[in-house]
Amino acid sequence: MNLNSKLLALDKVYNVYNDFASGINTFCKKYCSLCCTRDVIMTSIEGYKIIQHIISEDKTHLFEKIKSSAELKRLQPGITINGLAELCKDNDNDNLAEEIKTPMGQCPLLINDECSVYQDRPFACRCFNSINNCAENESATIDDFVLTVNNIFLQVIEHIDQGGFTGNLTDILLFLEPQQNCENLLSGKLIDLPTCLINNHSLKILMIPPEHKNQAQPILKALKKITY
Ligand code: SF4
Ligand code: SF4
What are phi and psi of 177, to 5 degrees? Predict the structure, then answer.
C-alpha cells in the first residue's frame, strides 16, 4: 500500500476511534498538557502527517526544539506493539521487559501548553482518556476496556504502516526532516534506518483479554470495514 492510501486509512481509523471516544467520560481536553512528555511513541505515517503539518503551516522553527529534544533522555522502544503481541503469543517472557520509564520532560511540540500540531497529533496522544484529572491525581487513570481498545488501535495503525517504522516522536521527526527521507518514505523505497527506529510488523494476533472480547466486537467490525 502506498503512503497516500495509508494516510487515508489512518484518517478512517481516527474517525472510528473518535466515535468510540465520544462515549467516554474523560477529563482529557485540548490545552491539558501534563501528559505531553518526550516519551511519545508513534509510527512513520503519523510522523509523515506531522511533518506535512509543520511544512504546510510554516512551523519549521519547531525543528530547533525537536533537535534540542534529541539531546535529552527519552523512551526509545526496542519492540513494536505487534512485535510484542507475537512474543506474548509465543510466551517469550524473557523478551517482554519493555523499557517502561517515568516521563522525562516536555514534548518538543508543546508550546505554551498547547500542542502545535493538535489536529495531526499521533494516536498515542489521542487515546489518553483519563477518568481522573491528572493535575489533582498526579497520573492518568484509564479504564481497562479503554486500554484494550487503545492497544487494538495501536496494533491496527502499525499494521497499516507495514514497510514503515516505529520510534520516539523526536527520532522520527528528525529522521523525516530531510526531504529525501520523506520522499523515500512516500515512494516506498527501502530506507536505511538509524538504530533508534524499528521496522513495523503486520498484525498477526490482537491483544484482547477474554473479558473484553465481546465488548470489542463492534469496534473490530468498524475497523474491518476500512480497506487497507
Ligand atoms: S491524560 Fe491527564 S494531563 Fe493528559 S489530557 Fe488527560 S487529563 Fe489532561
Ligand atoms: S504531539 Fe502534541 S499532544 Fe502529543 S505529546 Fe506532543 S504536544 Fe502533546
Answer: -60, -45
Give pLDDT tens digits for 91-103: 655 555 455 455 5
For residue 156, report the distance from its CA to the centre of ligand 1, in Å.
Answer: 24
Average pLDDT estimate for 96-116: 77
Ligand index nearest the alpha carbon of residue 169: 2
Ligand nearest to the CA of 41: 2
The alpha helices in the chain, defined as continuous H runs, are: 3-21, 44-56, 62-69, 81-89, 123-126, 134-137, 144-160, 169-176, 179-187, 217-224
Confidence (pTM) = 0.93
Sheet holding 165-168, edge to edge: 41-43, 165-168, 198-199
Q: Which of 128, 136, 139, 150 to mutate to test the pocket of ligand 1 (most atoms within 8 A of CB)?
A: 128
Count: domains in the chain: 1
Domain region containing 103 = 3-224
Is residue 170 within 8 A of residue 75, CB to CB? The reply is: no
Q: Is 170 in the pocket of ligand 1 (CB under 6 A)?
A: no
8 lines ligand 1 (CB under 6 A): no
